[in-house]
TrEMBL record:
Protein's UniProt name: MFS transporter
Gene3D superfamilies noted in UniProt: MFS general substrate transporter like domains
Location of this chain's protein in the cell: Cell membrane
CDD domains noted in UniProt: MFS_NepI_like
InterPro entries xref list: MFS, MFS_dom, MFS_Efflux_Transporters, MFS_trans_sf
Membrane topology term: Multi-pass membrane protein
Amino acid sequence: MLSLALGAAIIVTTEFTPVGFLPNVSRDLDVSLGTAGLMVLVPGLSAAVAAPLVVVGSGRLDRRLLIVVLSVLVLLSNGVAAVAPNFGVVVVARVFLGVAIGGFWAVVPSLGFRLAGPRAGTRATSIILAGLSVGTVVGLPAGQFFGNLIGWRLTFAASAALAALIGIGQLTVLPKIPATGRMTFAHLGEVFRVPIARTILIAGGVATTGQFAASTFVTPFLLRNAEMSSGFATVLFIAYGLAGILGTLAGPALVERDRMLTFAGAAAVFGVVLASLPALAGAPVLVSVLIGAWGVLWGLVPLALQTHMLTATPHAPEAASSIFITVMQLAIAIGSGVGGVLVDSAGLSTVFVASGITAIASAFFALLTRHGL
């Protein structure tokens, strides 16, 4: 579980480290801030395409070997980005990352139930997903801190080295994990025939769109709108990530009681938080508290959605995970893309208000269709 959590952490770190230094890349490679946001959009879009292709294409390949190969792709993505001569090459490097993201999240979440058994499956999944929050703890502040200290290129290079170490560790400690069967595109289609799965995908996709429209541009919001120093913003990123870990690890008790209600409650409240941030930008203490609350609430969302998806489709867990990650990564891409358009056309405040309304809408939809659409 720990090795898988570390794999999740490095993937999320790599995906979101650029959020901390978007302004640096924008300046150094002479692109707009909205265009620099493609570093988040492109991995999401390519992950959405890659997730079902990796599950179907990997066939009966041992999942241990597949996980290690995906770690190598993370290494390659970071290494290419570190030496990229222009923004176009950075985008290509982020496509490699997208393939790794799609494959990892399509295959790994279901392993919690396989390796720990059904009774401990939710707790095991929460440990793996805690790596997501750990990646946020590392990724956002590391991008902010190291991007300013050593530059964004060396930050990418350091991430490549970490990916190499984690890949070696996975190869060493993971047992052989045979595929449960050969997935086909027909198996993927069956997921959409499960009513509750459709509700999970729609509600989760809408909430994730709002989340990443805001989180992609949280650095410029804190620096420009809230007028915080770079150092204080870094501290807030750490607090946000630690709060996310707390939400994920404390979540199983809530999730096992009512998965959909846990999701809806968390989405509604973090939607209110996002929509309130622009109005409170001049009050740093309130902004700090809200950022921490946002982290806790978002930590609950992936756990509630992922475990609900797996329990709703026990006959095809990898197919369900691949469809789930495809929808969520599309939502990340849409969120960061729409966020970039809004930043360039209407300003940062509009992004956060629109994101909050989107998250609240997802909560209402989940409550109205909680027994299946």
